[in-house]
Amino acid sequence: MRLFCKFMLKILGWKAVGGVAPDPKIIIIGIPHTSAWDFVISWLFYTSIGGHTSTLVKKEFFFWPVGYFLRKMGGVPIDRSKGANVVRQTIQLFNEMDHIHLALTPEGTRERTKNWKAGFHTIATMADVPVYLGSFDWGKKEITIGNKFELTGDAKEDIKRMKAFYREKGVVGKHPEKFTTED
Prior knowledge:
By secondary structure, the protein is of the alpha/beta class. It is 35% helix and 20% strand. The protein has one domain.
């Protein structure tokens, strides 16, 4: 599968930068998230470098045959119904597994938003896992998990620092008009 994914990335014109994170449990931030294709490109990337990543997907998508492929690609069914606590479910997931590299998008939508969600911060803090700043830059066609990002106790300030990082990096989404690092 690894060679197939390398081949597909090359065919699609993408360059993989870096390697698999050394930590057994991590959160990989995926920015910018402007298209469902981000999931596919990310999966091809991480598989091509020898990693296995997980992504939270609404449980409603886990029907035959879609559910089979979602699971094979690291999809983890999550209950997002009214009253369900996604953060609590995700912390439990980290506590139950020995190895998980979970990709999350704090934008929380593929639409343009200035308000990034801080759930990743709560999860990382409560589950005691590091955060890496990944990116899929459709402008340069480069994808990476990036470096470890040190969290402080202030989610709002950490998100500001993250936005500054991505702003400085100049990442471009598949649909650039749907991404902003404004505060």
